[in-house]
């Protein structure tokens, strides 16, 4: 079968690149190994799909943690406002929430996927589901098409690899794109997990499993030097910690974790970042006056979640059975210090399969940032997570997928 363009991977990057190229007149086939398109997209934003961020271009560059400059042309060609306008034209109005996160007004990721499918159908993209690509074929360093696992040859003078990374392999992201690119001479930066929960050493963390803390500040330190800091919501789990600020923090400290040459990463949680030490001490005095005559363990309900009280007092070392009117200034000072310095030791991340995003991928030095075309193979393009670019949480990673998808699609149509 003859086509102008074959796109490998039916995620957000693959769907938008296909529709964009087809809208410019190319005969396009979209090849997806799963039984449906956008399988990973269903999971994003806890099923609500945080499609992008409403911040300005500087916000995007500030939140891209790997190779931000490479994305300049991609963001310029198709930015967050372009995506919001496209979704609106396809019947999906959006809304802006905390942190400038943009979601479909319906809170349904399925609406975004249906809209992109509508975009594909409108532009007459042929969709082949349950179709695995074995390799990309070449002649004289020029793409000639793809060979499927079934043995069928698809002829195309242009191919876009949009296969995603290696996180959530159950959605089809198993690293196939890396293998295809490597066979064609591209180098791959080692895939690592990012936006990933962290494993901690402290056993008492298990006692807090399921506890969510909001409006806390957390620092990551090595040898008492702060490497990163985040503010917001976190969650204790059976293995350690997760939640929005932990995921973002993991991206900022991933190069320091679980490597033989590095010292352990220490996390320090400030449970009351809005209060100074003096203000927190005054707050404790008020609570102690209120609960005068009660044991210390029963006098902190106004200040802390019930699960957290015994842990804080354990870390403080103050007798939990002591009556609050017997607590001296030094003991109160210890309690104040602990509330603003809960220590955790990071021993590892969860496996790559559990990461929201894969860090690593196709070396950006081998891709033309103005077109997303390979500098090694003519007619070969890349889009989305398969490229060595990633960002913090907040819709930035999906915008990278859409922007690189659009640019690769428009560039393939001009080739």
List the helices and strands and how they pair.
Blueprint: E1 2-8, H1 12-23, E2 28-31, E3 52-53, H2 57-63, E4 64-66, H3 72-77, H4 80-89, E5 94-97, E6 101-104, H5 109-122, E7 126-128, E8 133-139, E9 142-148, E10 153-161, H6 176-183, E11 188-194, E12 198-200, E13 212-222, E14 225-236, E15 240-242, H7 244-253, E16 265-270, H8 277-290, H9 306-316, H10 329-339, E17 342-349, E18 357-362, E19 380-382, E20 390-391, H11 396-414
Parallel strand pairs: 1-2, 1-10, 2-7, 10-19
Antiparallel strand pairs: 3-6, 4-20, 5-6, 8-9, 9-10, 11-18, 12-15, 12-17, 13-14, 13-16, 14-15, 16-17
Helix pairs in contact: 1-5, 1-11, 8-10, 9-10
Q: What is the fold named in CATH at topology level of the largest domain?
A: FAD/NAD(P)-binding domain
Global structural class: alpha+beta
The CATH homologous superfamily of the largest domain is named FAD/NAD(P)-binding domain
What integer value in Å does the Rg equal?
25 Å
Can you walk me through this structure?
The protein is α+β, with helices and mostly antiparallel strands and 415 residues long. It has 3 domains: 2-193 and 355-414, FAD/NAD(P)-binding domain; 198-272, Elongation Factor Tu (Ef-tu), domain 3 (Beta Barrel); 279-339, Helicase, Ruva Protein, domain 3. The protein contains 11 helices and 20 strands. It has helices spanning 12-23, 57-63, 72-77, 80-89, 109-122, 176-183, 244-253, 277-290, 306-316, 329-339, 396-414; strands spanning 2-8, 28-31, 52-53, 64-66, 94-97, 101-104, 126-128, 133-139, 142-148, 153-161, 188-194, 198-200, 212-222, 225-236, 240-242, 265-270, 342-349, 357-362, 380-382, 390-391. The strands form 5 sheets. Strands 1, 2, 7, 8, 9, 10 and 19 form a 7-stranded mixed β-sheet that branches. It has a 6-stranded antiparallel β-barrel with strand order 12-15-14-13-16-17. The chain has a 3-stranded antiparallel β-sheet with strand order 3-6-5. A hairpin with a 3-residue loop joins strand 5 (94-97) and strand 6 (101-104). Helix 1 runs parallel beside helix 5, helix 1 packs parallel to helix 11 (396-414) and helix 9 crosses helix 10 (329-339). The longest helix has 19 residues, at 396-414.
